[in-house]
Amino acid sequence: MRLKTTLGLTSLFALACLLGIYLSSPSDSTPKIATPETRATPQKAASAEVRFVKIATLPKAEPVAASSASSDVLERFDNWTKNYLQAGKTEKADLIAKGQKLAEERRPVFKALIIEDPREAIQKAVPMVVRQKLPAEVVALLEQRMNHIGAIRVMQGVPLDLNDPPEPTYREVELEKVGTYRAYVYGERANKLTWTAGASVNGVAMDSEFAISDDPTRRLEVGERLPEGKTVIASCPVSGKSVVDPKDVPAVVPESLPAVETPTEIITFCDGSHIAVQNQ
Prior knowledge:
The protein is α+β, with helices and mostly antiparallel strands. 38% of the residues lie in helices and 19% in strands. The protein has helices spanning 2-24, 42-53, 68-86, 89-116, 118-123, 128-131, 136-139, 187-191, 274-279, and strands at residues 144-156, 169-175, 179-184, 196-206, 209-212, 218-219, 231-233, 259-261, 265-268. The strands form two sheets. It has a five-stranded mixed beta barrel. A four-stranded mixed beta sheet has the order 6-8-9-7, with no helix packed on it. The longest helix is centred in the middle third of the chain and has 28 residues, at 89-116. It is flat. The relative contact order is 0.10.
């Protein structure tokens, strides 16, 4: 009996020692983050990240610093367009190769401008009245003019470590029958953090980068040929007044005709100030 008691006490003492060693030793499986609500384990982080970016199909674009050299590239192309439009037929043929070279040099600069300042990118896009007179070989290298209906999706990233800087908010726009672009916005669109379905978006795009105007419509330029295949609304939607004869719609926008382009139609106005009212 005494021997059994001694063996029992010895076993209990050994078990207690082993338990103490186990509890005092560090464990790789111990979470290093305070709570699952604020931090995630690596496995959960992957799932959490997917929640934000799984529907994104485009890689994040890296901004390129603007410089005076970049401005020179844009200005050189603008000067070429002026020379081309003023040149005679024979001279124009000789200028095409130079125009292609300048347009190629302009592409990365303009793409960077879309990313950094979408408002300025839209302002510095080649005017439609100029674009419509340039050779196809040059136009193919310029920014795309966009006017479509699409869904704007807002992505807000969450850093895995709360001590890390916040992840930037970025946007994508999925255009019906066209594809998905990285979206760069300003004004009211920049303040909106909810997704927008069926949005009218217009602006300019280069590759997968799309600078979206804050206005849902694009005002047509004086001297611009009317976009093909779109219905012309002949009455002002604000005043209800008849603006043009539906049977005699001008092929080129006259100075006396305020008009805008939407994804599906051309709307005319009796007064240019009514465009802002319509865009609200």
